[in-house]
Design goal:
Structural class: alpha+beta
Number of domains: 2
Strand order of the largest sheet: 2-1-9-8-7
Strand content: 15-25%
Oligomer: single chain
Helix content: 25-40%
CATH topology of the largest domain: Beta-lactamase
Distance between the termini: 26 Å
CATH class of the largest domain: Alpha Beta
CATH superfamily of the largest domain: DD-peptidase/beta-lactamase superfamily
Number of strands: 16
GO biological process, one term: regulation of cell shape
InterPro entries: Beta-lactam/transpept-like (IPR012338), Peptidase_S11 (IPR018044), Peptidase_S11_N (IPR001967), SPOR-like_dom (IPR007730), SPOR-like_sf (IPR036680)
Number of helices: 11
Order of helices and strands: HEEHEHEHHHHEEEEEHEEEEHHEEHE
Family: Belongs to the peptidase S11 family.
Protein name: D-alanyl-D-alanine carboxypeptidase
Organism: Roseitalea porphyridii
Length: about 400
């Protein structure tokens, strides 16, 4: 059962909205006005950082890539680093500046670097939000500065917090950064719960007058994992107090059982964090026709031969479909294609290009039906744990493969 009644003080605040999600299962432990429209303020920078992490994995950014500050970026109002027009900041420093100082000038500079213009980058952010299942979120800028069209919900922000952890487990550690020094000035993280509450490892604060004080918090301790959102606090202190109460009340109710990834990278989220009956719905559980075929082999070993890399119909199948009952454990998927031949060629090419990652894994093709059309998933089995599977996905992204890991 999901409790929906907030503490009386928060309930009396018309801007308040909150949610607590079990990040191991996707179950909603608590919600209040979680689907009501709110202004994200600097929670926006969670998506800006997500886009930077993704650009790094794709090779479009490196930690030392210089990001130039334009006159537009330099004109942003505080909070800001105050970099002069024409100055630069490295991508790694920019990420830390966004996480700790919540620097608006840096956010705009990043947007222009990756999107050409900030407005174009905001469209990119919105498209990515939709692909992550954030159906109620629209971005108009990269910083969260006031814009009546820049809206979200507590539920969408929780989904983004989970996506950051699942998709970028190594980079996510940057959200634990307590302070950041730039040009001789040390900036302390605005998230005062870091180091004060056991298990808190991020994520982001936010404030504009229209939104009130916002906070998304990740907690990981004792095998339990939650992401909690508080929006619309009257003060930073009251927001933090409400978050602390939510953590205290709901962390111990979270499961220690990790049921696998919850948010797909390239399409609809693999679970819906909504409503009292919500629980994680692993990929591939709906009863539609399915058949699996092993990739051709020679002498019992998978054939590893070069084939021209086909263009996938969808880099990772974003829909819920039937599972392969004869394969248990962790599996990764790198494409969903129109024909079996394309899927086989795609798997062989992946084995050839990334032999160190996939050489001893079992490639197979799984057929599924969507809207009366048959597609073919390109998958590898044989991963003993979530960390192994997601580690393989992370390694494959350096070869420009999209990848989704899940547990049968």
């Amino acid at each position: 059962m999901v409790l929906v009644a907030p503490v009386q003080q928060a309930q009396a605040n018309p801007k308040y909205a909150g949610i607590v999600i079990d990040a191991n299962t996707g179950k909603t432990l608590y919600e209040y006005r979680a689907d009501n429209t709110r202004y994200p303020a600097s929670l926006t920078k969670m998506m800006t950082v997500y886009m930077m992490f993704e650009a790094m994995e794709q090779g479009k950014l490196r930690p030392n890539t210089p990001i130039r500050v334009s006159s537009h970026a330099a004109s942003m109002v505080p909070s800001k680093l105050g970099i002069r027009v024409g100055g630069t900041i490295t991508a790694e420093a920019a990420i830390k500046a966004l996480i700790t100082k919540s620097a608006n000038d840096v956010a705009a500079a990043v947007a222009e670097h990756l999107g050409g213009t900030e407005s174009n980058f905001a469209q990119m952010m919105t498209r990515r939000a939709r692909q992550l299942g954030m159906s109620s979120t629209t971005f108009r800028n990269a910083s969260g500065l006031p814009n009546s069209g820049q809206v979200t919900t507590a539920r969408d922000m929780a989904r983004l917090g989970i996506a950051l952890q699942e998709h970028f487990p190594r980079q996510f550690e940057l959200f634990t950064t307590r302070s950041f020094t730039y040009a001789g000035v040390t900036h302390r993280n605005h998230n005062r719960l870091l180091g004060r509450i056991k298990g808190v490892d991020g994520i982001k604060t936010g404030y504009i007058r229209a939104s009130g004080f916002n906070l998304v918090t990740s907690v990981n301790t004792g095998g339990r994992s939650i992401v909690a959102v508080v929006m619309g606090g009257r003060t930073g202190a009251s927001r933090n107090a409400q978050m602390e109460k939510l953590i205290g009340e709901y962390l111990h109710k979270a499961s220690r059982r990790d049921r696998g990834p919850l948010v797909a990278r390239n399409g609809r989220a693999s679970f819906a964090i909504k409503g009292a009956s919500i629980a994680s719905i692993p990929l591939d559980r709906l009863p539609v026709p399915s058949v699996t075929r092993p990739v051709g082999s020679s002498g019992g070993a998978p054939v590893v031969a070069y084939a021209p890399e086909p263009k996938p119909a969808a880099p990772v199948d974003p829909i819920t479909t039937a599972s392969a009952p004869d394969r248990s454990g962790w599996v990764i998927q790198i494409a969903a294609l129109e024909t079996e031949g394309q899927a086989v060629a795609f798997l062989r090419n992946a084995q050839n290009r990334a032999a160190g990652v996939l050489g001893n894994r079992e490639p197979y093709v799984e057929q599924f039906v969507k809207g009366g059309v048959t597609y073919h998933r390109a998958r590898f089995a044989g991963f003993a744990s979530k960390s192994q599977a997601w580690g393989a996905c992370s390694a494959l992204e350096s070869y420009n493969y999209s990848c989704l890991a899940y547990q049968n």
